């Protein structure tokens, strides 16, 4: 999130970890814009924070050329800000998966092409796998999201992007505990899988999501049972650039 308060610290840490795969999390909701408020007045409030009314904003981006132009400029500015870090761009996704909006997706893919990046997240979560790990964990909403994401994933692949076959992290967003992750690793479908987390060393901080168990997610990533399950899965691990190379 190149416009977030801790971006500079994150970049400094990433520079100390040259093998870390770093992506751009395009943000059009709930954080701060990269461009000045006067350049994107329809996207932000008086303090320069993005709007929170996601549904209305999605409609306006589709129906109002003025808003759409501001969205295009902001997305381009975020790609430019990432380029200025000097880090290698591994992949692109968006806050709250807002790139599932076809108009936003078109802009993201255009900017990704310019940046030379081909990795793109499409949240195609396999409900049957989630429910096998924990009965009833998936929801009709997540299944509809997966159906739409799968449709857009086909579009992205046709355009030359590298998109994993499935993604996990939606149904348990903010609650990817060690037991859930270990169960998931024991049931990985064939193909390329992205598993995403929201790890942190504290559960409350400026901008935290209520009910998210950040510290539990961090603990899951280093849990002995999870590490054992990952080894048992015999899956190759890496980032989107590693998928591109296979």
From TrEMBL:
Its cofactor is Mg(2+). Keywords: Carbohydrate metabolism, Hydrolase, Magnesium, Metal-binding. Pfam families: YdjC. SUPFAM superfamilies: Glycoside hydrolase/deacetylase (SSF88713). InterPro entries: Glyco_hydro/deAcase_b/a-brl, Hopanoid_biosynth-assoc_HpnK, YdjC-like. GO terms for molecular function: deacetylase activity; hydrolase activity; metal ion binding. GO terms for biological process: carbohydrate metabolic process. This is PTS cellobiose transporter. It comes from Rhodoplanes roseus. The lineage of its organism: Bacteria, Pseudomonadati, Pseudomonadota, Alphaproteobacteria, Hyphomicrobiales.
